[in-house]
Design brief:
The protein is built from six helices and eleven strands. It is α/β, with parallel strands linked by helices and 215 residues long. A hairpin with a 2-residue loop joins strand 8 and strand 9. Bound molecules: 5-O-phosphono-beta-D-ribofuranosylamine.
């Protein structure tokens, strides 16, 4: 098996993606979550991590006067764990360029849309209002462009006629719980990486929208 890959996960809320990652770890998976950090002390994800015996930290963004100071404190804690990969799993803070550059090529995010569609917030409503036929989610490498880094994998599905926003949100979440563990595993196995030409899987450049999983 490949060498262990230490992963630090950043969260702000429920942490259902964190839970999916925790559940995907096993003897044949080189990824190992060494810490979970939240900017909110009340984040349910912290309890999920503790229940799995994972170290947790809280860095409250409100304790800092600016983004640079907050990100510097975050980086200091992250780096004590010497991670090969940093995973944003519902981390609701915009990161500084300094932070993004520091973790360049080893920073992944999950976004609830088929990027490049619907960067930013409110993605399910926007997909419904646009009358889209398809919706889904994307795992991408983080670059300085918000929700704009090279995509590793997408899960796409057909929107049902008259599908409610709640139903759609639930289906996107379920899809996230499939593709995030997969992307993290590929990264930990050395199969997924960011090269100059973009995201690569098994040394083959991925298309701009990443590997597509239709569900
Ligand atoms: C997910 O929908 C993810 O796409 C977005 O934030 C949400 C996090 O959910 N970035 P959870 O905290 O993992 O349940």
């Amino acid at each position: 098996m490949s060498a262990p890959c230490n992963v630090v996960v950043l969260i702000s809320g429920s942490g259902s993606n964190l839970q999916a990652l925790i559940d995907s770890l096993g003897e044949d998976n080189p990824a190992r979550i060494c810490a979970v950090i939240s900017n909110r002390p009340e984040a349910l994800g912290l309890q999920r991590a503790q229940a799995a015996g994972i170290a947790t930290h809280v860095v409250r963004h409100k304790d800092f006067t600016d983004r640079e100071a907050f990100d510097a404190a975050l980086m200091e804690i992250i780096d004590t764990h010497e991670p090969q990969l940093v995973v944003l799993a519902g981390f609701m803070r915009i990161l500084t360029s300094g932070f993004v550059r520091h973790y360049q090529s080893r920073l992944l995010n999950i976004h609830p849309s088929l990027l490049p569609k619907y960067k930013g917030l409110d993605t399910h409503r926007r997909a419904l209002e646009a009358g889209d036929r398809e919706h889904g989610c994307s795992v991408h490498f983080v670059t300085e462009e918000l929700d704009g880094g090279p995509v590793a994998i997408q899960a796409a599905f057909i929107i049902e006629p008259d599908e409610s926003i709640d139903a759609l949100t639930g289906r996107v979440h379920a899809a996230e719980h499939i593709i995030y563990p997969l992307a993290v595993r590929w990264f930990a196995e050395g199969r997924l990486r960011l090269a100059e030409q973009g995201a690569m899987l098994d040394d083959i450049p991925l298309p701009a929208t990443g590997h597509l999983l239709r569900i």
